[in-house]
Amino acid sequence: MRFSSKAEYGLKAMTNLAAYYPGQKSSTDLAQEEEIPSKYLERLMGKLRKNALVTSTKGKGGGYALSRNPQAIAIGEIIEALEGPIAPMRCVGAFCAKRKNCPSSKVWDELGLQIRVTLYRMKLSELAKK
Amino acid sequence: MRFSSKAEYGLKAMTNLAAYYPGQKSSTDLAQEEEIPSKYLERLMGKLRKNALVTSTKGKGGGYALSRNPQAIAIGEIIEALEGPIAPMRCVGAFCAKRKNCPSSKVWDELGLQIRVTLYRMKLSELAKK
DNA sequence: TTATAAACATACCAATTTAGTATGAGTTAA
DNA sequence: TTAACTCATACTAAATTGGTATGTTTATAA
Predict the structure, then answer these.
(1) CB within 8 A of B82, min separation 6: which ones?
(2) Contact B8, B37 (CB under 8 A)
(3) Which is more confidently placed, A93 or A4?
(4) Residue A52: which H helix or E strand, with range?
(5) φ, ψ dihedrals at A126, nearest 5°
(6) In a 10 Å sphere around its CB, with 0-12 CB exposed, 13-18 middle and 19+ buried, how is residue B55 labelled?
(7) In A, which residues are within 8 Å of B86 by CB distance?
(8) What is the distance between the alpha carbons of residues B130 and B113, in angstroms, rounded to a whole number?
(9) Is the pLDDT higher at A17 or at A102?
């Protein structure tokens, strides 16, 4: 059970932007500072933008900035933007004909809830670097 | 972020054995009843045995049985036996030179703790089939 | 008006992990 | 002595991850 590096990279980039808030920074700079492959990060930033977590400006001098105050951005939002909905097992939330007879669904439902509670309670502002 | 089918299969097999406790059942029967590929389940049962969650008897008429009362088996034990230690990110628990400066470690530490608390609080007896 | 630096889009690719299958050896009861 | 088991290991196909490559569009500055 692991989150992928997408989540880790995303948290790093977002924490960097939080420290710089409300300034904007290019993905190239972000990538260099956080040691993330530049083109890969670009794609991740695209997902964050589509989920309205950052704004972007194109063209020379452009870049990304947080779309909201870091206190108003939940860690869970960042992670779900990059990895998709939190669901500890494939069947969770999905239709399953055997569901009513499936003992393990209780585990996945309860666990998914706890993970969401944890990740939505934590805010980006809490991850500020020293 | 997903647990693999190993966890799902393991929970199904263990729940089946719990309903049959303290009886023993062959992996072939378990596999058939729970619709799990037989040889794959055999390997999973091996891991459960190595983690002292089931006992096995070899030879004709042999099979597997819970090694303890279902109330005394935590869901987390089953999952960790099959998937390894719960750690939502590769670096969690591992040595990392950058750790002290890593803002996201706070997320993974807290999340890992919550997941463990949830999965060790739930007991196999709670998953009994209707 | 042209060069440059940036976001944005998409196709491709290698490595790793997952979810098995295949084969066979050892063990016990009938 | 054979059938029904556990147990061990090697192999493999499919999916996922973690990228790279290539190119287009957009804005700024010289």
Answers:
(1) B6, B7, B10, B44, B47, B48
(2) no
(3) A4
(4) none
(5) -75, -10
(6) middle
(7) 1
(8) 31
(9) A17
Write out pLDDT tens, residues B83-100. 999 989 987 766 666 666
Q: What is the pLDDT of residues A3-61, one digit of tens each?
A: 999 999 999 999 999 999 999 999 999 999 999 999 999 999 999 999 999 999 999 99
Mean of all residue pLDDT scores within chain B? 93
Gap between the Cα atoms of A122 and A126, Å rounded: 7
How many residues are recorded in chain B? 130
Instruction: Answer yes or no: are the C-beta atoms of A25 and A56 closer than 8 Å.
Output: no
Q: How far is residue B130's CA from residue B115's CA, in Å, rounded to a whole number?
A: 26
Kindly tell me the burial class for residue B78, based on how many C-beta atoms sit within 10 Å of its own C-beta (0-12, 13-18, 19 or more).
buried
Residues of A with Cβ-Cβ distance to B110 under 8 angstroms:
118, 122
The structure's pTM equals: 0.94
DSSP symbol at A124:
G
Separation CA A54–CA A52 (nearest Å): 6
- The answer to whether some atom of strand D lies closer than 7 Å to the beta carbon of B61 is yes
- The residue that minimises its CA distance to C1' of D22 is A39
Q: Mean pLDDT per segment of 10 residues, for chain B of length 130 residues?
A: 94 98 98 97 98 98 98 98 92 68 90 97 86
Cα of B56 to nearest chain A Cα, Å:
23
Q: Is the CB of A63 under 7 A from strand C?
A: yes
Of B130, B113, B5, nearest in space to A108 by CA: B5
Distance B117 CA to D7 C1' (A): 33
Confidence of residue A99 (pLDDT cuts 50, 70, 90): low
